[in-house]
Structure formats: structure tokens, C-alpha cells
Amino acid sequence: MTKELKHYINGQWVDSSNPNKLNIINPATQKVIARAPSATKEETEEAIKIAKRMFESGIWSDQSPVARAAVLLQIADLIQENLDELRDLEVQNNGKTKREAESDVEEAVNTFRYYAGLLNMPNGQVYETSGNMQTLIIKEPIGVAGLIVPWNFPLLMSVWKIAPALAAGNSILLKPAEITPMTAVKLFELIDQSDLPKGAATLIMGDGPVVGQTIAESVDVDIVSFTGSTGVGRHIMQAAAGNMKKVSLELGGKSPNIIFDDADLETALDYSLFGIFMGSGQVCSSGSRILVQEGLYDEFVQKYIQKAKKIRVGPGHDEHSQMGAIVSEKHFKSILNYIQIGKEEGANLALGGSRIEGNGLEDGFFIEPTVFTDVTTDMRIVREEIFGPVVTIQKFKDEEEAIKIANDTEYGLAGAVFSTDQNKALRIIKKVRAGITWVNAYHLTNIQAPWGGYKQSGIGRSLSTYGLDEYQETKQININLDPAPIRWFE
Ligand code: NAP
Ligand code: MG
Q: Which of 109, 222, 323, 439 is packed most tightly, with the most Cβ within 10 A?
């Protein structure tokens, strides 16, 4: 039987007053796996009001850091205990492979544990100021945190926001991408089993322009934290201006992956495949623009294509699959459309470019690993985020040209350099205008380091101590240790 999903508001599972429901689809089979509610504007406003009341009651925000850490650890343990189910739900709903989904769930556990640990760290400053004054700098929760996430890492992107927002003592309201609510619902079932006070965490499902927009506009929401496309991010920022709420934006990318003649070829090939085909290229930090120095270019392209051809594409639940389905029919069509644009622009389609059929794959949304060569920087396939298994390979002469091409983009999320000359690699990576970078690697991330972009790839940082800061207000308390009149007017 198809599962009927419900919102989680004020610690209760509730139906939506909107009778229209959205069929949740497995993109590898197009089978309906659940039906999700689609909240109205009024329902969203009501949920925000409840979140605000809960925040003001202090039921969560007034708890000690030690108590809050204990709840976060409980949630981490519950996720760990339910790893298999969460993994399988992510595979079914998003289309990614089991291996990818399992790593997401493990990272979700680690993220809750990390922020629990951070709560036991010093968090503030004390200054001796003039005379008998002392200043304390303290951190406080912001209030109601509206969290809007995309469909590419449905669980992990939610957790990257929920864990620090709760750690800081906020009340949270999560809106998953409407097409991928399955792991969010499961996560809230687990949160419901924990000792988090009822009402401190709300799950509300529905359409971005309705639920997301209401959250971004609401005067009762104090921070909107959004991960998604740059276009919607710009819209969120405008909507947030009404009450000057804090905005945290993790947006798109078109990241350069620069390979020098002196790179270790096998390492460069391996990470360059991983950099774009992991998650079927539906990863914000994907290395979607490979730049190769002219001396290595021909050999690199030839070997890259040989290896990309061998990637086994198939349903995520099949252990044999190395690359899964595209998340939805709409996105699948958008990727195929970009491939068509690339051909029309005169790029050389060196590999792939089509839907995969046969062996039952025609039931799902599968696209071949696709490689374009002979591209120029003005082409749309080089400038725009395709967000699929499509990579462009471009040739450069020297360091100067590599940096020029790498930075010729409105985005600034990620980037990498491959070279055995460490001095050169560091020199170049420091010039790449991006927030997340690698030398001789790609995609390997770590919770202790801040995640976010330069330029139009976003504002603010997730993860690390910066990620906790994002959900906190900063207050100075100036204390007169020797109270006596100042006599300014005498
Ligand atoms: P999206 O279309 O921007 O949607 C993201 C979320 O925003 C969804 O929940 C969506 O709702 C909602 N939304 C849509 N319109 C809205 C509006 N007017 N007001 C408020 N919310 C609205 O992005 P996506 O296609 O899901 O995800 C892919 C994008 O995310 C890519 O650009 C990728 O680079 C980016 N991304 C960035 C990071 C990072 O860390 N920088 C990480 C992952 C993904 P619906 O459910 O109705 O669509
Ligand atoms: Mg929508």
C-alpha cells in the first residue's frame, strides 16, 4: 500500500487541509512510493506561529548545552540504528546508489555528533575594557529557523541545517524538496522518539513557491537557510528583506577541475570521474568543467573516455550499479536538453549523450555518462549548471590561462588542481575564487571545515564552527564592575 505522508507540527502527525497530494516517485522505476501533502500558505503560517510560540516558551532554547548535546547524540544514535532503512528510502526516492546513500546516512550521524561535541566547547569571549568595565561576548539562538532543502541529498542537506540549528537552541521548520520527502519523514519519526521537546522541530511539505515562499517572507521567521539553485536563492533573499531576517544560502556551481601536465595521471583521471559522475552529477560541488594542460590533453581525453564508458549505470538498489537514476522526469528532460544545446553550439560529443534503454532501464530516468570536448568558454554548456552526468573538457596553455578560464564564471563554489608540483598546486588553488577546493583530490569533505561558496554560489557557511555561528546571534554585555555615576552632564 502506498504510504500517506503527514506533516509533523507541534509534535503531532497531521494531515493537510489541501486535498491535493503529490505522488512520490521512484525515479529508477517510475513507481509511486508514497503520497505527500502539499501545505497551503495558511497552514504554513500556522506552523510558523507554533514554532515561534515554542521558541518563546524557552522549552528548548533554555536547556543547557549539555542537555541539548544529549538530545543530539540520541538523534545520532537513532539514525545509526535505522541506517539501512534510511539508506533504502534515499535510494528509492532520489535514485542514487546504495553506496552513495549509505555514505549520506553515515555523514548525517557524524554531523549530529559533531554539533553535540561543539556544544561542550568554549563559545564566547571576555574582554577587559577601559577602567572597570568588562565585556562578555555571548552567543544566543536566533529564534525560528526556516530550513529549505533540495532533492539531491534529501537527508544530508536537511541534517546539515537541523543539527546546528537545534544545537544553537532554535526552533526549526524544515521544508524538504517536494519530490523527495521520504528520508525527512523518517528522520522526524526518529526525532519524535528522542527527548527533543515537542514542537521544537516542525516538518512541513509542499511546493517551493507556496511553503518555501511563505517561510522566506514570514515576519515570524528569524533566519532562512536555503540550499538550492542560484535563481531561487536570489528570490529567497528578496523575500527575506521584509523583516531583515538572516539569510544563509548554499547555491549552485560550475566548478573547475584543473589538471596540469605534471599531474599523476591515474589519480587525476580517477578523481575527475568521481568529481562529476558521483551522484549522477547532481551535486552542487561537481567538477563539471575539466581543464587540461595541452601536453597531457590528448592522452587524458582518450583515457578519460575509456574509463567513463565503463561506469555501470543502473537502479540504485542493484549492488552492481555505480551510477543511479536522475531524480525526476523534469530534471531528466532538462539535462537531455542541455546535451542537445551542446551539440547545437558545436561542442564535440565525445561520449554518451542519450537516455539509456534496455534491461528495464527504460522504465527509469537514466542518462549515459556524457563528455563534451572542443568547448569554448562562451558556450552555455560551459557556463550554466547542468546538474547531471555531463562534463566538458577544455584545453589550456599555462598557469595564467588556467586561472583565467577557471574564474570565468559567475559561480564560486568549488575547484581542484592536480599537479605533482606542490608549490604550483598551492599557488593556483589560492587563485581559484571558490570556497571549497582540493589539491590532488575531489569531493572529499569533512565536517570540521566550512562549506559554502564565493560569488553567486552563496552567502554564509555550513558545517564546522562557522555552521553553528550561522544559527546564532552575537551579543555584547558590558558590565560596570564599579558602579558609580559617570557625571557626563556635570
Ligand atoms: P531549487 O529548485 O532551487 O529548489 C530548492 C528548494 O527550494 C526546494 O525545496 C524548492 O521547492 C524550494 N523552492 C522553489 N521555489 C521556491 C520559492 N519561490 N521560494 C522558496 N522556496 C522555493 O533547487 P533543486 O533543483 O531542488 O536543487 C538543485 C540545486 O541545488 C542546484 O543548483 C545545486 O547546485 C544546489 N545545491 C547546492 C548545494 C550547496 O551546498 N551549495 C548543495 C546541494 C544543492 P520544490 O520542492 O517545490 O522544488
Ligand atoms: Mg515545486
A: 323
Q: Please state which CATH class domain 256-439 belongs to.
A: alpha beta
Amino acid in the structure at residue 115: Y
Element (H, E) at 110: helix 98-118
Residue nearest to atom 45 of ligand 1 (CA): 208
Decide: 434 in ligand 1 pocket, CB within 6 A. Answer: no
| CATH fold for domain 3-251+457-476 | Aldehyde Dehydrogenase; Chain A, domain 1 (3.40.605)
Q: Which ligand is nearest to the CA of 232?
A: 1
146-200, pLDDT tens digit by residue? 999 999 999 999 999 999 999 999 999 999 999 999 999 999 999 999 999 999 9
Give the closest ligand to the alpha carbon of residue 210: 1
| 250 catalytic residue (yes or no) | yes
Residue written as grid cell 535563481:
231
CATH 3.40.309.10 maps onto the chain at 256-439
Q: Is 335 in the pocket of ligand 1 (CB under 6 A)?
A: no
Q: What is the pLDDT of residues 164-179, one digit of tens each?
A: 999 999 999 999 999 9
Residue 132's CB is within 10 A of a number of other CB atoms, namely 12
Determine if the pTM surpasses 0.90.
Answer: yes
| 90: annotated active-site residue | no
